[in-house]
Every structure is written in structure tokens, then in C-alpha cells.
Write a structure and sequence with these properties.
The complex is a heterodimer of chains A (about 500) and B (about 475). Chain A is mainly alpha-helical and about 500 residues long. Chain A contains 22 helices and two strands. Chain A has a two-stranded antiparallel ribbon with strand order 1-2. In chain A, helix 4 runs antiparallel to helix 5, helix 5 packs parallel to helix 12 and helix 7 packs antiparallel against helix 8. The longest helix of chain A is centred in the C-terminal third of the chain and has 37 residues. The relative contact order of chain A is 0.10. By secondary structure, chain B is mainly alpha-helical. Helices cover about 75% and strands about 0% of the residues of chain B. Chain B has a two-stranded antiparallel sheet. The chains are: A mainly alpha (about 500), B mainly alpha (about 475). Chains A and B meet through strand 1, helix 6, helix 7 and helix 8 of A and helix 18, helix 19 and helix 21 of B.
Chain lengths: ~500, ~475
């Protein structure tokens, strides 16, 4: 068939256009009531698209697949170019899956008259975030990377809690500040690419940036310019301070998407830009970043212990978990030169990506569970709860599963990523691995202590006695998440198979 | 009409005649049919656009002893000026009528100012440049005080007049020094003298200072916020958009035709002016409570980017700067149009707090303002981003990555005050809940939406505007 189906463009633009249309229609009350199931339909359509993309995806290759190229700004060498590899397709699938859950949860969590606007914003978000993962042109990546901030800024600002304006401005300005150096780095790489004789649309393609040979001095400053953008996004200690505010003040769906997807964009950016473009710079600074990651893991875990606010607790634990992602990636950079290095590097990279996916599912699930309580009790303070198990047994069992996954219990997806990363870290240094493993202990402490205080114990608050258990839409959402957490926990092979080609290629680029 | 001289200035001649006709028509009808002058002005703009496009010679032509150039660059910028003037008049039709300056003189003065700008755009000789510049600023001073007995308008007009005269003085002094060094007032002859004597450079510095003053670049920016705040919104729109395009064209002609041999010297000046403007414009805007003043500081920041584009032009070409200038004019036009949409008699809607809860009063208008604010702050996928992108790319290619980083840092700082408007519109409750008054014609309302949507659509396909800009320089 010559008339190809541009599946990647469909993945990006269907939800964006549908979302814009819903925003226009949301003013008409009767019409917006009739359209109540339309966002869900669009979300399911996206699931169908990504299934189709998986069906056409070839394993064991790092080549960009399902590529699309359209002239966009030919005089500047900028192209509308899309493609997927093993990393991108998994994260795109995660994005679509999480948005589906957000919309499912919104049926009972959002007021009826705001439902359509709320879902529309998340559909637009979904499209733009998929754009980030699918773009193979650097400027197109940057456009999506920045454009997705617009709906997020509005989502937190409009539907957030009391302190939302402070939180959303902090989030926005932090991220904008991070990405400005990244843009200059891209323009500089473009300059180098053109002086190396690359012309036309090649001059802004991410792949051609990866093939440039840069001297170490250049790589060093490019490393920091690129790192800052993604370090803020992921976020790494000490530029993490926007995250607890943004996650706490955002509405349930906002927290889910922030934790599950936008943090992953930071990790994805490192996979796509930082490691392959400036491998020598990464190796040079690997120790620094490893230490920063360990601080995030150990120190932030300690901070998590003392949180009194449910959402803050989950938010801080996110930072600690994302520490494993940066740890895995930079351990790969560090060990690449030792004997058997590429093999260990692949383990580190695989671990980092698995940890990203795992954290996507688990943090999404945790924020969903917090949201389920919040919508019933309108408080996030842990001491307001206690004895929830008496009135919400089903909820308590789901939360138990997600809490165990959060602490990295074997058999759940939370275990696989951390295990791979720690395995690779042992090769980089025993003490590194020891500190990293401390999170397994601290994680158990803060998660299960929270669980104990919320779910078990005396009922101190009369509101708890009036709680109703999960509604049907919440049941579906929790069940889907539970299935993913357990399925990929005992059988992570499908994920590893999809990303294998890409991680091997990345390890090769690191060793060049 | 086969005389090439007459053909070259046919648009200017037509506009002069029509300005007089409109003045006479208003006097003859004694202002009884008030819309006559208005309609006549719009028709004039339409006609002059056709004349400009159809009398454009195939190759660039210089007439009147090489003092007046007609080329694609001039043609496109002139047509953009007509579009801007026509939009401003359509936006402010009811605004002007309610405030009693819907008169023939207003339209005639606007057209005369436009005429001056057209001369500036086409001039390639210091004499025609100076005459054009005076012709375009003098009517603007008068336009500010068209609303009678308002002390703040008079204050703004006097400030603008005094500072504008200073600018003319600087320019004239610079021109005299350049004449002293080269013995010529013709750009091409100045360039062909191949001189880089200190006298010529001193002259160039004064000329650049005059240009910077008309632009409103730091440190010559003091008049800008006062004039923006102290003028009726119609005139703020005129002052905020048209002169920037004219002065940009002036700089383009000067730098490419008169001073190409001393590029390193003027590049340094532009770099300082640019970075100082970007820094001050983006920082000072944060402290404003009046949206017109805020947009004035935003203008200063944007002017900084245009100057940065001019700085990099010897290496990267003038396309980024042209692109930025055009985009800037339409972004600011849309911003002021939204402000004007909110006004009614006795209420100028110029406090930032007037935007509180706008989305509950008029969601569509709030959405348009959202687009405008994101465009001004340079967020993709709106057009403002691509304008900044090209300037930054030019600066990085010129080898000044650090300057690009400085510019971007201040842009992020400045993003705060654009986002604050969005905060007020979307995240707060309105002060009053009655719907927006209807002080804008239907056509104006359609145009506001169109203007805002255009910022998004051209942002999604920026190549369209890019081709226009590139074709201008061929």
C-alpha cells in the first residue's frame, strides 16, 4: 500500500485536535453533557493507535521506525520529522495509558460542568508529550518540550489546591530556565553540524548531532547546558524543589501525569541527547552525577520519612526513585571503559529505562490512590486518616500492592528496575551500590509507615467511618494499574525485548 | 503614467492627495456624516496597497538622484504598514467615536504620518531620510492630543515631542559629521568613500543614537512607557507598531548601503544597545501595574532582540531581524486590540487587575489574550518563539553564544509578567461579573480573533512568513 498510514502523526494530533474541539464545545452545557464519553473514546482510539504501532514495530534494531518527514522550515534546516525506537515507543505507550487512567478517574473526581475542559486539557497534554517522545528533529523536540508546559501551567493553575499559583509559577519558571541553555546548546550543535558539511534537514536531526565528533572542552560545557534542562525536569537534587510544590498543588490527574510522564521526559532527554551527543563529557562528569543521584536517593528518602502530607510524601519518594534513573545512566557512562563494560552499561541503561516505566506506573497509581482519598475527605494530612481499611477494604488492598511496588518488592515492577541499576552500580563501586541499596530500607520505612497510619489503626476521624469504597471507574483504573505492576514485575522480558536494540546502540555510542 | 519617476512614487503621491481630500471632505461636510472620512481612509489604504503592489518594478529601482528606492523590501513593508493602519482604525472605530476624536483631522494626520514612514522606508539618502522621519513623527505628537482637555495626553505629547526633537537633533548632527567626513549625503557615495576615519565613526555613532532613540532602545527608552501610558489606546497602537517597522527599514538601509565598511564598529554599538534593552525591558516590566506600561517595557525587550538581529546581520543576514519586526508588530497589535475590546467610556482597562477573571466574563477573548501573551513571551508553538529562535541562531552562528544565553536568561525573567496576565485571567475571580461592553464593531471583534489565531497558525507553519521575509531581501 503506497498511501501510508502516518500513525505517529495520528498519535500526536488526534488528541490535540479533539482536545481543542472539546474546549470550544465545553461552553454549551447540554452538548458537553452529551459528549461525556467522547474523551474516553479518543483515549481508547489512542490505545488502538499505539497497539498498531507496536504491531508494526521491528525488534532488535536501533533504527528509527515508522518515520515521517515533512518539510517544515526548509530554509532553516528544520523538519517535521517523527520516528520511534525502543525507548520512545515504550514511553509513548506509557503516556497514552496514563492519560486513559486520568480520564477514567475524572468521571467521579471532577465536577460535571468542568469535566470536558479537564479531559480536553489532558488530551492536549497527551498529544504534546507523545510529540516529545516521537520527534527526531531537535527543534521539533524543543517545540513539543516547551509547548507541553502551556497546558500543564493552566491545569495546575485552574484546578490546583490553595497554593496553586505559587506552585505553577515555580514549576513554569524553573523549567523555562532549565531549557534556555538547552536551546542554545542545540543552536551551537547546529552550527558545528553545518561547519562539518551537513546541509538541509540533516543539520538539525538528532541523529546527526549524535554522530558529531566534539572535543572534550566543548563536550564539557555542552554537557552542563543540556544537563540543566533535563536535570530540572527529572528532577535531580538540588534542582528538585519545584516538584513537591507542583505535585502537591496539582489536581489528581495533574499529579499523575507530572509524576508518570513529565519526569520521564527528563530521563528520555538524557537518553536521546546527553549520553549519545556528549559521551566523553558524560564520562568526565559521571562521578559527580552519580554522587548527586546517591544524595537524591538517600537524603530525599530521609526527607520523605518526615512528611505529614500524603501527596508530598509520594512526591518526595518520586525524586528518590528518579535518582535511580540518573544513577543507572551515569553508571553506564562510568563503567563503559572497564573490562566487559558495554555489557554492564546495557544493564545500567536497561535498569534506568525500566525504572522510568516502573515509576510511571507506580507513582501514577500512588497519586491516583491519594486522589481517591482526597476527593472523599478533602484533606491530604496523614494524621486525619486512620482505619481506612474498615470502610474501604478493596481500596486498602490495591494501595497495599502499590505500596509494596513502591518499595521495590520482588514480583512487582518496582523491583526490576532498581535491581538492574544496583547490579550495574556494583561494578562502578561497592560503596555506591551500598548507598543506593539504602533506599530499599528507607523506602520500606516511609511507605509502610504511611500505609500503617492511613489504612490501619484507630479511626480518629469520623469522616473516615462514612467513606465509601471504590466506584466502578476507580476499580477499573486501579485494576489496570495493578495488572501492569504485577505482569511486568514477574515478566519484564517484553519490555526488555522492545528496548534491547536501542540500549545496545546507546552503549556503543558511549564507548566511541 | 509611463514616467518611471512618477511611477516610483505613485503610492506616496496618491496618499498625499487623499490625505488632503479627506481633510477637505470633513471640512465641507462639517463633520455631519462622520463615517465619510473613516470610510474614505480605509478605501484609500486599500487603493494605495494595490498601487504599491502593481507599480513595483521588477528590479530594484532608485530614482530622484538615488534618494528614493523602490524594491520588494519597501513594497512588502509598506503593505504591512497599510494593513496595520487599517486594522488599528477598524479596531478603534467606536473607541474614537465615544471619545470624540472620530474626525477628519485624525485620519488625515494618520495618513500623513504613514506617508512619512513610507518615505523613510524607501529613502537611500540622508536628506530624504530626515524629511521622512520628521514627517512621520510630527503628526504622531498631534495625534496624542486629539482628545482635548486631558492633561495626561498633553503630558505624553510634550514628552514625546521633546525627546523626539532630541532624536532628530542627534540624527542631524550625525548626518552633518558624516557629510564632513565623506562629503556626501547619498548612502552609496558614503559607502564608496571607503573611509573609516574617526569623524565618520563619530557621525555614525550619533546617527545610531538617533535611530536608537526612535526605536526606544536603552538608554534612550525613557519616553516609551510614558507615551504608551499617556496616549489614547488608538494612538498607543499607532506609536507601538508602525514606527518600529519604519525605523527598522531605516536601519536596514543605513547599515547595508551607507555603513557596510564600518560594520565592526556599529556592531559593537548594537550589541550594547541590544543587551541593555533586553535586560531592562524584561526586568522592569515585572514591577508594572499598568498594562500599557508593561507592554512598553515588553516593547523595549523586543526592540533589544531586533537590535540583536541587526548586530548579527553582517554574518547571518537580515532575515531574522525582519521576521522579528513583523511578528512583533502583529503581536503588539493583538495585545492592544484586546485591551481596547475591554474599554468603555470612562474606563480605559489599562490596569493589569482589570484582566482578573476575564475567562469567566468572555472565555474566547481570554483565550486570544492567552495566545498573545504566550507569543510575546516566546513560547512555542506560537510565532514569537520562531522569531526568537532565528535571532538566537544568528547570534550563535556569529560566534556569540554567550550573548544568546544572556538574552535568553532575561527572556525567562520577562516571561513572568506575561504569565501574570494569564494568572489574572484564568486563576482569579473577576472583580465585576457583567459581560464585556460592546465597544468594538463586529468587524473589529472578528479581526481580534483573527489576529490572535494567526499568531498560532503562522506559528504552526512559520515557513509561510519566512518565505515572505526571504523574498524581500532578494
Amino acid at each position: 500500500m503506497t498511501a501510508q498510514l502516518n500513525i505517529l502523526s495520528l498519535i500526536i494530533w488526534t488528541p490535540v485536535l479533539a482536545g481543542l474541539m472539546f474546549l470550544l464545545l465545553a461552553r454549551h452545557v447540554t452538548l458537553s453533557n452529551k459528549l461525556r464519553y467522547a474523551p474516553l473514546l479518543i483515549s481508547l482510539l489512542s490505545v488502538a493507535y499505539i497497539t498498531f504501532a507496536f504491531y508494526n514495530f521491528t525488534l532488535n534494531t536501533a533504527q528509527m521506525q515508522l518515520q515521517e518527514h515533512i518539510m517544515w522550515m526548509p530554509t532553516l534546516g528544520i523538519e517535521y520529522a517523527l520516528g520511534v525506537d525502543g525507548f520512545a515507543i515504550l514511553l509513548t505507550a506509557l503516556t497514552i495509558f496514563m492519560t486513559l487512567l486520568v480520564i477514567l478517574a475524572a468521571f467521579t473526581h471532577v465536577k460535571r460542568e468542568q469535566f470536558l475542559t479537564y479531559c480536553a486539557s489532558f488530551l492536549i497534554m497527551q498529544g504534546l508529550m507523545c510529540g516529545v517522545f516521537l520527534a527526531t528533529d531537535a527543534i521539533l523536540f524543543y517545540v513539543f518540550f516547551e509547548a507541553m508546559m502551556i497546558p500543564m501551567f493552566l491545569i495546575i493553575g485552574i484546578w490546583g489546591a490553595e497554593n496553586r499559583i505559587y506552585a505553577t509559577f515555580k514549576f513554569m519558571l524553573y523549567t523555562l530556565f532549565g531549557s534556555l541553555f538547552f536551546l542554545i546548546a542545540l543552536l551551537y550543535l547546529h552550527k558545528v553540524a553545518t561547519s562539518n558539511g551537513l546541509i538541509g534537514t540533516e543539520s538539525f536531526a538528532i541523529a546527526s548531532f549524535q554522530n558529531l565528533t566534539l572535543d572534550l572542552a566543548t563536550q564539557k560545557w555542552l554537557f552542563w547546558a543540556i544537563l540543566i534542562a533535563f536535570a530540572v525536569k527529572i528532577p535531580m537534587w538540588p534542582v528538585h524543589t519545584w516538584l513537591p510544590d507542583a505535585h502537591t498543588e496539582a489536581p489528581t490527574g495533574g499529579s499523575m501525569i507530572l509524576a508518570a510522564i513529565t519526569l520521564k521526559i527528563g530521563g528520555y532527554g538524557m537518553l536521546r541527547f546527553l549520553l549519545p551527543i556528549v559521551p566523553a563529557g558524560c564520562a568526565f562528569f559521571a562521578n559527580t552525577i552519580i554522587i548527586l543521584s546517591l544524595v537524591a536517593i538517600a537524603y530525599i528518602s530521609l526527607i520523605t520519612l518526615v512528611q505529614q502530607d500524603l501527596k508530598k510524601l509520594v512526591a518526595y519518594s518520586s525524586i528518590a526513585h528518579m535518582g535511580f534513573v540518573t544513577l543507572g545512566l551515569f553508571v553506564a557512562c562510568k563503567v563503559i571503559t572497564v573490562n566487559n563494560g558495554p555489557q554492564i552499561a546495557v544493564t545500567g541503561i536497561d535498569g534506568a529505562v525500566l525504572q522510568m516505566l516502573a515509576h510511571g506506573f507506580i507513582s501514577g497509581a500512588m497519586f491516583l490512590c491519594v486522589g481517591i482519598l482526597y476527593v472523599r475527605m478533602h484533606t491530604r494530612a496523614i494524621n486525619q486518616y486512620g482505619g481506612v481499611v474498615n470502610t474501604m477494604p478493596l481500596y486498602a488492598s490495591f494501595l497495599m500492592l502499590f505500596a509494596l511496588a513502591n518499595v521495590g518488592m520482588p514480583g512487582t515492577i518496582g523491583f526490576v528496575g532498581e535491581f538492574f541499576v544496583i547490579l550495574a552500580t556494583f561494578k562502578a563501586g561497592f560503596w555506591y551500590a551500598l548507598i543506593a541499596s539504602s533506599s530499599l530500607v528507607l523506602g520500606v520505612a516511609y511507605t509502610l509507615w504511611m500505609y500503617k497510619r492511613v489504612v490501619f489503626g484507630e479511626v480518629v476521624n469520623h469522616a473516615v467511618t462514612a467513606l465509601s469504597d471504590l466506584s466502578i471507574n476507580e476499580k477499573i483504573a486501579c485494576a489496570l494499574l495493578a495488572a501492569a505492576v504485577i505482569l511486568f514485575g514477574v515478566w519484564p522480558n517484553p519490555l526488555l525485548n522492545v528496548m534491547r536494540g536501542s540500549s545496545q546502540q546507546l552503549a556503543m555510542q558511549l564507548s566511541k | 503614467m509611463n514616467n518611471p519617476l512618477l511611477l516610483a512614487i505613485a503610492p506616496e503621491m496618491f496618499l498625499t492627495i487623499m490625505a488632503c481630500v479627506i481633510l477637505l471632505a470633513d471640512v465641507c461636510t462639517k463633520g455631519r456624516t462622520k463615517t465619510l472620512a473613516y470610510n474614505l481612509t480605509l478605501l484609500t489604504l486599500l487603493a494605495v496597497a494595490f498601487i504599491t503592489i502593481f507599480t513595483l518594478p521588477i528590479t530594484s529601482t532608485a530614482v530622484f538622484n538615488n534618494s528614493f528606492i523602490v524594491d520588494r523590501f519597501a513594497c512588502n513593508l509598506k503593505v504591512i504598514l497599510y494593513v496595520l493602519v487599517a486594522s488599528i482604525l477598524i479596531y478603534s472605530r467606536l473607541y474614537m467615536r465615544e471619545r470624540d476624536f472620530f474626525t477628519g483631522e485624525f485620519f488625515a494626520l494618520t495618513l500623513l504620518s504613514l506617508l512619512g514612514m513610507m518615505f523613510v522606508i524607501s529613502s537611500s539618502n540622508f536628506l530624504s531620510l530626515y524629511l521622512g522621519l520628521e514627517l512621520f513623527v510630527l503628526p504622531l505628537y498631534a495625534l496624542i492630543v486629539m482628545v482635548k482637555h486631558q492633561s495626561r495626553y498633553i503630558e505624553a505629547a510634550i514628552k514625546y515631542f521633546v525627546i523626539g526633537s532630541l532624536g532628530s537633533g542627534l540624527l542631524l548632527y550625525g548626518i552633518s559629521l558624516v557629510y564632513g567626513a565623506t562629503g556626501a549625503i547619498d548612502y552609496v557615495v558614503v559607502a564608496s568613500s571607503m573611509s573609516s576615519s574617526p569623524l565618520l565613526i563619530l557621525g555614525m555613532i550619533f546617527v545610531v543614537a538617533g535611530v536608537a532613540l526612535e526605536f526606544g532602545a536603552v538608554p534612550f527608552h525613557m519616553w516609551l512607557p510614558d507615551v504608551y501610558e499617556g496616549s489614547p489606546t488608538t494612538v498607543t497602537m499607532l506609536v507601538g507598531t508602525l514606527p518600529k517597522i519604519a525605523v527598522f527599514a531605516l536601519s536596514y538601509r543605513l547599515l547595508t548601503l551607507a555603513f557596510p565598511n564600518i560594520a565592526p564598529q556599529w556592531q559593537q554599538l548594537f550589541m550594547i544597545l541590544a543587551l541593555a534593552s533586553i535586560a531592562l525591558g524584561n526586568v522592569m516590566g515585572i514591577a508594572q501595574t499598568n498594562i500599557k506600561r508593561m507592554l512598553a517595557y515588553s516593547t523595549i525587550g523586543h526592540i533589544g532582540f531586533i537590535l540583536l538581529g541587526l548586530f548579527a546581520a553582517p554574518v547571518a543576514g537580515f532575515t531574522p531581524a525582519i521576521f522579528y519586526t513583523i511578528v512583533y508588530a502583529f503581536m503588539v497589535l493583538a495585545a492592544f486590540a484586546v485591551i481596547m475590546r475591554l474599554t468603555h467610556v470612562g474606563f480605559e482597562a489599562d490596569a493589569i487587575a482589570d484582566f482578573k477573571g476575564l475567562t469567566q466574563r468572555d472565555p474566547w477573548l481570554a483565550f486570544v489574550m492567552l495566545l498573545v501573551m504566550f507569543a510575546l513571551s516566546g513560547m512555542p508553538p506560537l510565532i514569537g518563539f520562531y522569531a526568537k529562535l532565528q535571532i538566537l541562531q544568528a547570534v550563535v552562528n556569529a560566534g556569540y553564544a554567550w550573548a544568546a544565553i544572556v538574552a535568553m536568561i532575561f527572556t525567562v525573567i520577562g516571561a513572568f509578567y506575561y504569565l501574570r496576565i494569564i494568572w489574572f485571567m484564568y486563576f482569579t475571580e473577576p472583580k465585576q461579573i457583567e459581560p464585556i461592553s460592546q465597544e468594538m464593531s463586529f468587524l473589529g471583534k472578528v479581526l481580534v480573533s483573527g489576529n490572535g489565531i494567526l499568531l498560532l497558525l503562522v506559528g504552526i507553519y512559520p515557513a509561510s512568513l519566512l518565505y515572505v521575509c526571504i523574498s524581500m531581501l532578494k
